[in-house]
Please model this.
Amino acid sequence: MAALLMTRPLAAAESFVAGLPDAECADMQVIYAPLIEIRPANAPVLLRDAEAVIFTSANGVAAASRETAARLPAFCVGQRTAKAAAAEGWEASCLGTCADELVAALASQCPEAPLLHLRGAHARGEIAQRLTDAGLICREQVVYDQVLLPLPEEAQAAIAAQNDVIVPLFSPRTARHFANLCGDGANLHLIALSQAVAGPLKGLKCKTLRVSRAPDAQAMGEAVLDAAAQLSRLEGKDRAE
Model:
């Protein structure tokens, strides 16, 4: 039986696994090994004269929603983020699956500004600066931190056992941290959300490294199921021989 090692923050990891078919999950040992803990900044959101906000993660939505009762138009990266924002009462719209798509869409639409990007302490894309350079006034505020965690003992044992382990990775920072912790990775089947996530993993001597066909949870789930199915076929072939 292959193991599925989930390195996302626990709530996001559990949500991802819950979206997988029960039958396929039954054939995998799911190990929750969060490598990042989300810690809200617990500081007031400084909306000031902002006409709209930008969310690039559901974590930003949750942290900001606790700190302000205001609800403005919210431009979001990804359907999951947009759904989380709408559930919290923001006037949410999804403008792409990555920072580049969001910046291009906003630069084209020219919404009323100033805009406010509510983000984590560790972020990529330089959204506020790029929008300002494009002529849209955009500020940013850190509303949560992403604190790195050690690899739990159960995860270490699964990797050391040299059995097959499927590891979906969702951010370059998590991928880099995991690569530093996992050893040689000889029994690992790594699935990266994007080429940027795959980059820090390319030096590992893992069994397989694949990149999701799209940077979203659905495509990542399909990649996990495909990896599990391939391992199951190989295991069945070995038994037959």
Q: What stands out?
A: The longest strand covers residues 138-148.
